[in-house]
Amino acid sequence: MNTRQTVAPLDATDIEDVEARVLADLVDRMGAVASEELTEGGSPARLVRVSLPDGPDQVVKLLVDLPGAVDGHDLESFRVKIRQIEKVRRDAPELRDVYTELSSEFYGDEWAAYTMPFYPNRDIAEPLRRGEAPGERYETELKAILSDLIGHGYLRERTPADRGQIADIHGDRLSRRFWLLRQYLPAELTEADRITVNGVSCRNPLELAMRVIEDPALTAGIDPPHLFHPVHGDLNTRNILVTDGDRLAAGGGGYRIIDPRGTLDPWDPAYDLAKILFSFTVWDPGLRKGFDMASTADGWTVAIRGGNYPSYLEAAHGLLPLMRSLEPFREMTAGDPGWESRYLLGHAFHLLGEAACRLSDIKKRTNEDDDAALSPIDLAQGHYLYGVLFLENAVRQLETGGAVSQHEALRLLG
Predict the structure, then answer these.
(1) What is the pTM of this model?
(2) What's the helix, strand, coil split of the chain in %, to 5?
(3) pLDDT of 237-291, one tens digit each?
(4) Cβ neighbour number for residue 45 with a 10 Å cutoff
(5) Conformational region of residue 15, where left means phi above 0, alpha means psi within -120 to 50, and beta covers everything else
(6) Which end of the chain is more exposed for a tag (fewer CB within 10 A), N or C?
(7) How far apart are alpha carbons 400 and 238 in whole angstroms?
(8) Residue 251 CB coordination number (10 Å)
């Protein structure tokens, strides 16, 4: 299950050269002019805005095959994303005007690209970073968007789930990716039986992933009874874009959903909604600011450099109550008593899965405060340390009480 593969090269000069050549060729074929690079996304794909001589601006999204890239960042997943976009737009007509729109597709032996219209936008969390309280805009906007995605999207399809979904989705994903973490992170973090993070003694996360896989009774009470339409799969806050705040406030669109995971099969929405939570707790502030980490005789410490955005922390604590206030959410989770626990366990696994993703992302990232380069290894290690902490907490709660509490989980944020 942990077979070693060719390591994704962190010195990505060759890949960048291929990207530059392919992008230049695509822009020339379109008769366009490249105007700016878009760097907000969390995936390794390159996004370039281009101007056309006789039409609105487009965005070219290109992924060149990166040997050893984790699933979700690899070329096969990228190609399925295009099919998933088509599926959602076909099967959920109410979402057609707010979901990523495809203009053209291009393929090479070791790359793929597609184009979509460019819409001036802001990600849904942008007002929170500027200090707005969640109640000013964000909560109203997210309620409208989730009501659409759940009511017109996820609930379009409901199918009984086989037992062991958590093991298949979360446990197996971490076990598949752990070889890459071992390749780049200190052995004391990946090989030790116990890892102390922020004063908490934690078990090795691979051990916990294998526990989830090999002991079905541990998660039997929180496995999903049903799966739903595959609306997305990577619903972080950077993939929820506001294009017209007035229209969104009036309930008439005004947003775009971009960059699905790349799956055509029935899906567990708890996976997606936990991605919004992890955007606020660690992922988005970590990618923007970096991490402060230290190893001492007492173990490891980790924190968001300069501190998380205060409104992000408020939004993280308020996300579950916000979702519970929505009638489509209550319909979707009826008869699913393990939903909250699965959402919080998924959040912990997302942090660890993201650690490996950082090692297969060749984009150059900088600290938003001083433009200092952010090392992909440091970004991976920061996510890993937080993941170790949150996974230990979630599994320990399952072992002792059979459920995971948001209060107990989010108190780890301080």
Answers:
(1) 0.93
(2) 50, 20, 35
(3) 999 999 999 999 998 899 999 999 999 999 999 999 999 999 999 999 999 999 9
(4) 21
(5) alpha
(6) C
(7) 36
(8) 10
